[in-house]
What we know:
Elements: H1 2-49, H2 52-59, H3 66-89, H4 93-132, E1 138-141, E2 144-151, E3 155-160, E4 165-169, H5 170-176
Antiparallel strand pairs: 1-2, 2-3, 3-4
Helix pairs in contact: 1-3, 3-4, 4-5
Amino acid sequence: MSTLSDIVIFANQVTESITSAVVIPLLIFFAAIIIGKVIHVLLKAFLRSVEFNTHAKKVFTHRADYAELASGGVAAIIYTVGTVWALVEAGIIILALQIVGIFLGVLAIIALMVWLFDLLPNLFAYRKVVKKFSVGDELSVSGVSGKILHVGWLAVTISTDNKLIVVIPHRTIKARV
């Protein structure tokens, strides 16, 4: 009789172990995927409804779907948090830390690439702009005109007729002149 009760106890322990080590982490993982996808779709729709792309294009000069990028980034964070949480629940903490490190490394590489895509064209255009313009010259680019106040490494600062101070990147000047 004791062997039957030992088998039942062992079976209960195995079931609890499988549930805590496999089922719960899988539920967390799939919940994160579903939540991430729903947030992605809703956030993208919201950002497009408030014309996020139009406002972002005034700040960033690259042609991209910024609503898609922003909502996709939020979804990626949700996926990562869910994956790490599931791995921690499964007892695979080292792998979870490696995934976080990889995710942060990828984010750093993306940020570096975006920064370089803005920086390098302006630096390369610097020589051409400096040869053509100097402080005090009149400049008219993209519907903005005024007197040059400063020529920096990345941009030219002008004062318009309305006394507004406008900073124009070198690559914009190079492309228009």
